[in-house]
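Bumping with the actual sequence this time:
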Amino acid sequence: MSGVAVADITPPVGYRMCGYFYERLSTGVHDPLYAKAIYLQQAREQAALVFCDLIGVPQSVTDRTRVIAGGKTGIPATNILIAATHSHTGPLYFDALRTFLHERAVAQNGRDQQEAVDYPSVLSEKLAGVIAAAKNAAQPVELEAGVAKQTGLSFNRRYHMKDGTVVFNPGKMNPNIVRPAGPIDPEVGIVQFRDAKSRQPRSSLTVFALHLDTMGGTEYGADYPFYLERSLREKFGGNFISVFGAGTCGDINHIDVSTNRLQKGGEETLRIGNTLAETVLQARRGLEPAGKPSLGVRYAKVFAPLQEFSEEQIAQARERLPLIGTKGLSFIDQVQAYKVMDAQEMRTRSGPMLPMEVEVFRLDNDTAIVGLPGEVFVELGLAIKQASPFRNTLVIELCNNDISYVPTKKAFSEGSYEVVNSRVQSGGGERLVEAAVKLLNELKH
């Protein structure tokens, strides 16, 4: 049995927007932001996976959502996954930058007029509601799953340079680029749900490792998954629901540095969404029916030490926060100040060891879905796939908590933006891999 439901989670216009290191206020809605829930049930096993058109979902929201949803549905908290697609055109509703901007507005005006609603509370209620709606919509389904290849859309954004450094986003046609510092993941993981009676496709889950940062601007939008769904609906009808999960793309974006072609804004968003849809449609013929569905879920919580900072570093970061978004501080120093204060917020909540949840869902003996927290480097996702005993392993990032970047040990030694902007110490990503592979092997036997 499976059901899918959708809820509109678009904040009021005027709410702050996420994704960049300055205050950006929304001015409109390009396309609504949605939360899409997939409910799965077989015998006594229940599970739900929710995907939100947001940059991330913090632990406070996912914890609250699971409690409310559990009361409505009886689904165990550890069988509920809540993921963000990582759209950079959604609301800024958590983290140290939001805290700073909110507190500054209250200090200056007595209230924060940009936050017309308590968005985190509203979001938790809506996510719990969409899980319950997906359960209520459950019907017998047939599952099909497989993996397609997609090249030409995604690029590793970290490069070795002639001076020996590693730089992220070094610019198009930069003559000092030597080679990419890492791979991409060209796999498009696909799970399709058909009505068991009519055999008509009702919904699908697509997983691809590519940052959602193509739109820009000040209008809310879901980025390229919006066009992916629009194209699939042209084929399957207006009621078809396309759900998108972000693969491990902490170091992957859409910028091809070998060309001067403009790659920003609506045209690029449309191109990527439509191209991905073509790949999904072409792959349909090769999808394998689930011969014997066998829903199973495994959950683990692993811990990674947070980065540590001296009192002087914390004081400096606090002093520098007002300079974020100005020319009074270099970009990398802005990132550092924001990171230090955000890590301190995390330390206040969880102590020196950051809890990281890993969830694995078995659909049948060939297909499994892995959920990891944070913006995970692609090599870590590839390592999980390589070690997985399942033929189709879909690895999804930004699940259950947004802990910022999770680089590899190798990347920590190289430095650059993602490392400066990470909260965990070196080795945290490898702990996620170890836990995920262990759970996958448990579910295979």
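The tokens above came from a reply further down the thread. The two ends are 23 Å apart (CA to CA).
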